Amino acid sequence: MPELPEVETTRRGISSYILHHKVHAFKVREPRLRWPVPTALAKILPGQRIDSIKRRAKYLLLGAETGTLIIHLGMSGSLHIVAAKLAPETHDHVDIIMDNGQCLRLRDPRRFGAVLWTTQDPCQHPLLRHIGPEPLTKSFSGNYLYRASRKRRCAIKTLLMNARIVAGVGNIYANEALYHAGIRPGWAAGRLSHQDCGALATAVKSTLKQAIRAGGTTLKDFTNSVGQPGYFGQSLQVYGRQDRPCMRCASPIKRKIIAQRASYYCPKCQS
Questions:
Q1: pTM for this entry
Q2: Per the count of CB atoms within 10 A, which of 44, 76, 186, 264 is most buried?
Q3: Contact partners, residue 106, CB within 8 Å, separation at least 6
Q4: Catalytic status, residue 6
């Protein structure tokens, strides 16, 4: 699933192609995504200028003149900039064709993504209104994480992936941040010290920033808006490295299922 760094990489990649340009046409070949693509968009969007391209958690927000297009990439979705005349492939479901001849094309093999429309504040949309602070802002800090984790019995990794606590920290980056903070993913959140929470908040920020600089992580099929893979996968310290030696101490990396998600850790460095 595209996580925060992949979505941020996509946001940055598409901006120069569509920002401040007008929509020429909106074409839907398959409306049956996670929620149906509104049929009215074919009439609403053409002629409108895209004035902003923002990200909230794993959602992209394309601000037009009369509303906001909310896009989520789901499990396997991706957005690509292609020439409008390029023939679509099997899983290319939605085209936003711009007045400069560029096309923002949504590819979504599993169809768990979303393309929705709102005329209200998009951050108050039912899908976004309960999302926690962005991890790369001052609102997410060691003090905040310490307060949010008190009396919580769930695993710290589960808490870290709870979008109501912090926005957009997915499985890959939760594993990596916990490793860098020296905290085991299965430790009870409420038992972490103030110092632990400070180290973890710092690790989350640095891990996400590094991943964004690398263009995200390509494990299966993620590519950015111009078809390039993300290279953060080359820097992964624990994720997907079960039984391989820790890069710090050479102990075998362990794997454990926590809340139905694979968790990886070094039993020596995270102790």
A1: 0.89
A2: 264
A3: 71, 77, 78, 79, 92, 93, 94, 95, 113, 115
A4: no
User: For residue 34, how many other CB atoms are within 10 A of its CB?
Assistant: 16
Per annotation, catalytic residue among 2, 5, 135, 185: 2
In this predicted model, what pLDDT tens digit does every residue of 108-167 receive, in sequence order? 999 999 999 999 999 999 999 999 999 999 999 999 999 999 999 999 999 999 999 999
- Residue 147 appears among annotated catalytic residues: no
107 catalytic per annotation: no
261 is an active site residue: yes
Residue 164's alpha-carbon distances to 8, 132, 133, 161, 259, in angstroms, are 19, 4, 8, 9, 16
Say which of 55, 56, 58, 107 is annotated catalytic: 58
Give the tokens for residue 91.
């899983």
| 108 and 158 both lie in a single domain | no
Tell me: the pLDDT tens digits for 207-253?
999 988 887 654 344 344 444 444 455 678 999 999 999 999 999 99
User: Tokens 């409420």 correspond to what residue?
Assistant: 190
- Give the E-state strand segments of 175-214 in sequence order: none
> In the structure encoding, which two tokens stand for residue 40, read together?
């009215």
CATH of the domain at 66: 3.20.190.10
Structural domain containing residue 254: 142-265
Pairwise CA distance, residues 74 & 34, whole Å: 8
